[in-house]
Design brief:
Number of strands: 10
Radius of gyration: 19 Å
Shape: globular
Strand order of the largest sheet: 3-2-4-5-1-6-10-9-7-8
Strand content: 15-25%
Helix content: 25-40%
Number of helices: 11
């Protein structure tokens, strides 16, 4: 029998360096460049002098999540990190150094940091973890697939606990960044980090992972959401819909109108759009105590029109 999977801690880092709900601010355009050195020293406790910006995002979010646990984090914690674009800035730096007109040698630290699994490596190193370590990239669904893999491994006993995150950085100028990532003109180009610490133990949990569901093109989103609510909602639970950045406003309004009792929350107004924004949105829904239980559903599309749904239960704590 598959084991239930529970959420024991969560942390979300936004594009203003915000790490708590009271610090979140609404974006009115692309966020300014974010300097994280001081926040790294505050949260992580050490200076990561040669770390990239992406590694800093991962280090702060993962360490904050770990420190919110009510017990010492076990060494056999597995790491599953989703990222859509990984090391954008360091890859650009390496190309500028080795390609004409520069055509020289790459900086050793830029070259090392350009590896796309460095964020997961630092996450495990700082956590003192000695278990499996996976970097997952599936464009808009990168965090969702990392969560899906981690949950499957926990349910079948392949690992006992897991730290699951989503991390992506932006880059300037906007026009250059959008060559890799299509956004509407009215969508701020965000960045951030979101993390969930998962365990199969119920005691002390903040919530539960219910289902991750991928559906190919042509799905009726209202039917998908309504079926999820019917299957998983418990008596007295609120239903919170977190719409991903590929859903248009009209589609979100139609979903709320079609499924009674659903309330949509625009978390993207505080983090902007990036491939793993879902990690920020879902983690932010769990990083503060709740007075009432809720069914939390994240729903997004990719550019091909496939849908990905994640349903979590938030406990009253």
């Amino acid at each position: 029998m598959a084991k239930p999977v529970y959420i024991h801690a969560a942390a979300a880092l936004g594009p203003h360096g915000d790490i708590a709900r009271a610090e979140r601010r609404t974006l009115h355009g692309d966020p300014p460049p974010l300097e994280l050195k001081e926040l790294v020293k505050t949260v992580v406790g050490v200076s990561l002098r040669q770390a990239s910006h992406l590694v800093e995002l991962a280090a702060i979010g993962s360490q904050l999540c770990i420190k919110r646990l009510s017990y010492p984090v076990p060494e056999n914690t597995a790491v599953y990190l989703g990222t859509g674009l990984a090391e954008v800035r360091k890859n650009e730096a390496v190309f500028r150094q080795v390609m004409p007109p520069g055509a020289g040698l790459a900086s050793p630290f830029d070259f090392i940091n350009a590896a796309n699994n460095m964020a997961a490596f630092y996450t495990a190193k700082l956590g003192n973890f000695r278990a499996r370590n996976l970097t997952v990239t599936q464009e808009e669904f990168s965090f969702e697939w990392a969560l899906h893999l981690a949950t499957a491994d926990l349910r079948t006993g392949e690992c006992r606990q897991a730290l699951v995150g989503g991390v992506d950085e932006n880059s300037l100028p906007r026009a250059s960044h959008l060559r890799r990532f299509a956004l509407r003109d009215d969508q701020p180009m965000g960045e951030g980090s979101g993390w969930l610490y998962l365990d199969t133990r119920r005691e002390g949990a903040r919530g539960e992972v219910l289902v991750t569901h991928n559906v190919t093109q042509g799905v009726d989103l209202a039917d998908l959401l309504a079926g999820t609510v019917r299957a998983w909602r418990q008596e007295g639970e609120d239903v919170l819909l977190l719409p991903g950045f590929r859903l248009q406003d009209a589609a979100i309004e139609a979903l709320v109108a079609a499924v009674p009792g659903v309330r949509a929350e625009n978390y993207l107004a505080r983090c902007g759009a990036f491939h793993t924004a879902s990690a920020f949105g879902l983690a932010a829904a769990f990083d503060a105590p709740r007075a009432t239980p809720a069914l939390v559903v994240h729903l997004n599309l990719n550019v091909a029109g496939d849908a990905m749904l994640v349903a979590l239960r938030a406990f009253a704590t």
